[in-house]
Amino acid sequence: MIVRSLLLIIVLVLSGCKGIVDSNKLAIFEPNTSESAGYSDNHDLWRIIAENQAINVDENPRIQSHIDWITQRPDYLASISKRAEPFLYLVVSEVEKEEMPIEIALLPIVESDYYPFSYSHGTATGIWQFIPSTGRMYGLDEDWWHEDRRDVLASTKAAVQYLKDLNQMFDGDWLLSIAAYNAGPGRVQRAIDNNIKQGKKIDYWSLDLPKETEKYVPKLLAVAKVLKDPDRFNQKLTMIENKPYLEPVKLQSQFDLALIAQWTNLSIDEIYSFNPGLKRWATPETLPYTILLPVDVVDDFIETLSNQKNRPKVSWTRYKVKEGDSLSVIAQNFNTTINQIQSVNDIKSNLIRANSYLIVPLAREKEGYYSLSEIQREKSRLNATKNSEKLIYKVVSGDSLWKISNEFSVTINELVRWNKIAPKAPLQIGKELVILIDDKEKTELAKITNTGIDINRKIVYTVKSGDNLSLIAQRYKVKVSQIRDWNDLNEKDILQPGDKLTITINVVNSNLS
């Protein structure tokens, strides 16, 4: 609580705020606790959310544009409903517990489409899209085994508390609070201060905010409105029952996920999907650890756990240290951590002797079995070439994500997601970036490839400091003479930074895959 209170002070100091916003004409939610008693009469969580909304706003073209977008996509909410089903009751419960507007339970739709492995903006992850710094402020930690920001229960509790603190900061205005969740409280407060100086209104709709934030709140309000009458907006919602789907179970020892799968008859993919914070083949070594399991398997799991309480939950092997071995090498080879090896073998330093023996944890199954572990998901990402064409671009002097995104007609967020990089981190010269051509284009290219027909794609390249035709030709696997022909250049022409060159890439037969 002390940390959260400090947030209010820190943000105000850093943003140079003159004071907290005035409460005139703000979007304030007044909780009606009597409604909660009636929730049990309704069996569909979507209907509960639709009928108990508390953030009331007037019609607005920014909201309507998002309603129109949803209406044109009849499968939109149905696909989200499928992903949200295991988690929606848990999220609604946490929101209700703090007497917040029930619409807050829809924020993960705006943030991540309720996809638990969502990763964007270089560092944000999980259904609530916490960045590391804010996550740490609200107790979301990460270690080799586990990522709290992707843990649905932990991140939901943290998100609710963060939004509650933001709402306190902005005097009960939920539109400003939600905007601050997206843009940061300092950014919203500076926009308010600027409007005060200019004698303008300080409600959300009147503020000069980043484009993403100007769309963010209307997206939430659009989804909320569509839920009230899905048929009218061309949506078919799958019912989600108003009862727990998952139940938290506290584990007092580290567990191989393969053993949990065996005891519960769940697939390994289901275990990872319900517990997306798990990064490896086992639960964390730090105890206790709370895992989420479907309600209908919990009793059997606990009974088996009681009957097998003395059985090791993680397999171990006796390893003979070889010449040249180190704890880091051994830990990497056995997919574990140095700390765990040190702890089990009661050794304090990193020094180990050849021909001595160590006890190290050993996964019950081969690496590929743990299909949604962080390592396997990374492999899948790098090998995802069936539905897309992949270009490897090498960074040169003067490059930025903005320049590269313009050059290849992709977005900065796509570059960030494809390459798992921070959007504001400087690009190192020589770094290779993956650039993907969209799935639709790939599908058409696959048809063309089967007929043996080539297809070319033109790109516009902006000349950078230090560039020459030879370097550019090498980068795009073309000839210098071709670049000259395409751009009407002769041998005496000298390239200048900022010049635009048209380059034709043979998409099917070039080195794009």
Quick structural overview:
The protein has helices spanning about 1-15, 35-40, 45-50, 60-70, 75-85, 90-95, 105-110, 130-135, 150-170, 175-185, 185-195, 210-230, 255-265, 270-275, 295-305, 325-335, 340-345, 375-380, 400-410, 410-420, 440-450, 470-475, 480-485; strands at about 120, 125, 245-250, 290-295, 315-320, 355-360, 390-395, 430-435, 455-460, 500-505.
Structural description of this entry:
The protein is built from 23 helices and 10 strands. With 513 residues, it is mainly α. The protein has 3 domains: 2-233, Lysozyme; 248-372, Membrane-bound Lytic Murein Transglycosylase D, Chain A (Roll); 384-506, LysM domain (Membrane-bound Lytic Murein Transglycosylase D, Chain A), CATH 3.10.350. The model is unreliable at 1-5, 8-41, 439-455 and 507-513 (pLDDT under 50).
